[in-house]
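Moderator note: this is an archived Q&A kept for reference. The question asked for a predicted structure of one protein chain; the sequence and the answer are reproduced below.
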Amino acid sequence: MFGILKKAMGLEGPGPGGGESRGPRIEVAACVVLLEAAYADYKCTEDELEHVVATMKDIFGITAPQARELVEMAHKEREHAADVYGFTREINETFPLEEKLKVLEALWKVIYSDGVIEKHEAALARKVVHLLRLERKEAYEVKMNAKKWAQERA
């Protein structure tokens, strides 16, 4: 199953610039971080879940069925993880700044998607900013972009 997903996602063989392929770990790591945001208030809405799927499609250029399979794999990983540290470490080791900011913006969009920011969600976002080693100014700009997105959807 994972081999089929890797092949469909174009993750086999050399990665960008002829280097080593990122592999499915980074996709799962990014997805787990977004699922943590979706579950931070102890309930994951259908809107939040669909946003995670859409984000996976956008960031990794995969189809909706592939994104749903990725979310399913991430759910399993999330169930066995103690925290998000290992996943953010994977993101730090793999993603350049621009992609880290995309993940953070997607995280804020998941948080804003239900119209309410719970204290646990805000705390998670602050923790992810710290773990991804992002500057406060960059993180604030991303948060404001996500807030604007949410206001336009309302």
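Archived answer notes: The chain has one domain: 2-11+21-153.
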